[in-house]
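Human:
Care to share another protein and its fold?

Assistant:
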Amino acid sequence: MNLVDFKNNDNGASLLEVMIAMVVLAIGFLGVIALALVLTNNNAAAGKINTATAIAQAEVSQLNCLRTSGILQNFPQISPWTYTYTVNPTVSTPDKRNTVTSCITEALSKGGHAPDSSLGVTIPYTVTINFFNNPNPFSSTLINAQIEVGWRDIGRHIIVMNDIIS
């Protein structure tokens, strides 16, 4: 029969060693949680930037579809001129330009619920279009447009695109 002498057995871990291991693990877990929070915030910001870029690209496509003649129907004087509207999850202030509806997505032109699958609008975005006469002396039919899509969460953010409409 084997008898174990517990007084001389040093094979186990002491209470101090277990507590140190728990502190090291706790610090590691806190680091992982902090990293997850940063990644979640960055992912949300990237989604907002992606949506603002999609709205700006839709506006550029609309302006190119309208061409100079369609823009001049809506804005008889160009030198310089600014137009602003808001795109909300439910569009309460839709874009009301005359010839827009044949060139732009429904969410931006007619109001109503914005299609989450296409633009992903979950917060209000302000779209500002700045028109300028093109300084090219060889073509008086060109119009410069600067499209700004902005939103507010913590601070103000703006996506800017430039386009030359012919």
Remarks:
- Residues 15-165 form one domain.
